[in-house]
Amino acid sequence: MIPKIETATTEEIKSFQEQKLLELLEYAAQNSPYYKRLFEKENINIKTIKTLEDLQLLPVTSKDDFQKYNYDFLCVPVNEIIDYASTSGTLGEPVTFGLTDKDLDRLAYNEAISFDCAGIKKGDVVQMMTTIDRMFLAGLAYFLGLRKLQVGVIRVGSGIPKLQWDSIMKYKPRYLITVPSFLLKMIEYAEMHNIDYNNSGIIGAVCIGESLRNQDFSMNVLSKKITEKWDIKLFSTYASTEMSTAFTECEHALGGHHHPELIIIEVLDENNKPVKNGNSGELTFTTIGVEAMPLIRFKTGDIVKLHSEACACGRNTLRVGPVIGRMHHMIKYKGTTLYPQTMNDVLTTFENIENYIIEISTNNLGTDEILIKIAVKKQSETFLQELKDYFRAKLRVTPKIEFSSKEILDSLVFNQLYRKPVRFFDKRKNLI
């Protein structure tokens, strides 16, 4: 089911995207109050934008812009919106994202080719261990994509290991869609209740919300802990509500494949200039084929690297590497630049740690301060020192670490108000 454009030559893909870019700019200039106003304000003649390189002549769109002028991005009458989704905003309130019937078809196509990339085929049965309610676009996208693939779907929702295992035993799915750290809870429950999880029929899991890979695509601590016990294939996927597009790994696990028929991608430095090949920067995208709320040069806030080497799966598209971190999550601590993911990797290493949160605040000197709260199976000063020594060895710095209870941390990490586990709390701006 690999789309023809994804096996085309680099030149053919570029030419295709440039034609789609011209169509998008014309559409936005005519129908988007936000972009119409922006083009006039910046004296931009869209007729001068002819190549992907010419995108640099256009200003970027930030999440702040999307929140402040939310409905000005709407290109169709409100009565044509079929689904209302929400996404987190930078100013404290959720942002509305509307989709037309055509946009839902595009969303289904995106997820169908993404799941196909991960090996899911017609006739398979897939258990969705994610929510589809609370205006969560990803859950709806998964369902629509699986339906388009003519795959059986078990909509169990998130959490509750017993319910998940009951459904697995009854309906015999081959794949799961889940947050990867929850698989550890599934394993723990299975071991406590004598469930032979390696003979359960599950062969793979499409994982969302948490990283599975190091920057060289080797398995990180989390994915190793899962697969050392459960012999299943893990597939990483990266997406956002605003892009309505997913980057999913194929069986070779060398980054999430780009769908050039759906999205144009750039990686930009802090001055909004393209980085050199192989360098990291902020993933920035321009949507193709979105009817209700198309976005042009939208900055995701995620720091990534792009990879262009040929992939053995036959796709000739760019691949997005594991997210290094988020721009606003960057921490400057004792002269060292850190992202939460690097601390997650350290904390996940220790079997004794049952749960944890990372809090960032500003101290009286105006610099970043890190406090890590951990819940452990066996509490001791010896373990605390071992953990601090490991931080120093791996990251060259040691944050403040203190013990907490599992009950307190569970209530924070698995808050029902959020769709995924939340372990990072940024008190510098009162943002999570």
Record keyword descriptors for this entry.
432 residues; 6-stranded mixed beta sheet; globular; 4-stranded antiparallel beta sheet; alpha/beta; 30% helix
Structure description:
The protein is an alpha/beta fold. Strand 16 and strand 17 form a beta hairpin. The chain is globular, with a radius of gyration of 22 Å. The mean pLDDT is 92. The two termini are 39 Å apart. Helices cover 30% and strands 23% of the residues. Helix 4 crosses helix 5, helix 6 packs across helix 7 and helix 7 packs parallel to helix 8. The protein is built from 11 helices and 21 strands. A 6-stranded mixed sheet has the order 4-3-5-6-7-8, with helices on both faces. Strands 10-11-12-15 form a 4-stranded antiparallel sheet, covered by helices on one side. A 4-stranded mixed sheet has the order 20-19-18-21, with helices on both faces.
How do the strands and helices of this protein lay out in sequence?
Elements: H1 10-31, H2 33-41, H3 63-68, E1 83-87, E2 95-99, H4 101-117, E3 125-128, H5 137-148, E4 152-155, H6 161-171, E5 175-178, H7 180-192, E6 204-207, H8 221-227, E7 233-240, E8 245-248, E9 256-257, E10 263-268, E11 281-287, E12 298-304, E13 306-307, E14 319-320, E15 325-326, E16 331-333, E17 336-338, H9 340-348, E18 353-362, E19 368-376, H10 381-395, E20 400-403, H11 406-413, E21 424-426
Parallel strand pairs: 3-4, 3-5, 5-6, 6-7, 18-21, 19-20
Antiparallel strand pairs: 1-2, 7-8, 9-14, 10-11, 11-12, 12-15, 13-14, 16-17, 18-19
| Straight-line distance between termini | 39 Å
Q: Give the strand order, joined by hyphens, for the main sheet.
A: 4-3-5-6-7-8
Mean pLDDT: 92
Describe the global form: globular
Count every beta strand, where a strand is a DSSP E run of 2 or more residues: 21
How would a crystallographer describe the biggest sheet?
Answer: 6 strands, mixed
Helix/strand/pairing category: alpha/beta
Tell me the fraction of residues in β-strands, as a range.
15-25%
Point out poorly predicted stretches. Answer: none
Helix fraction bin: 25-40%
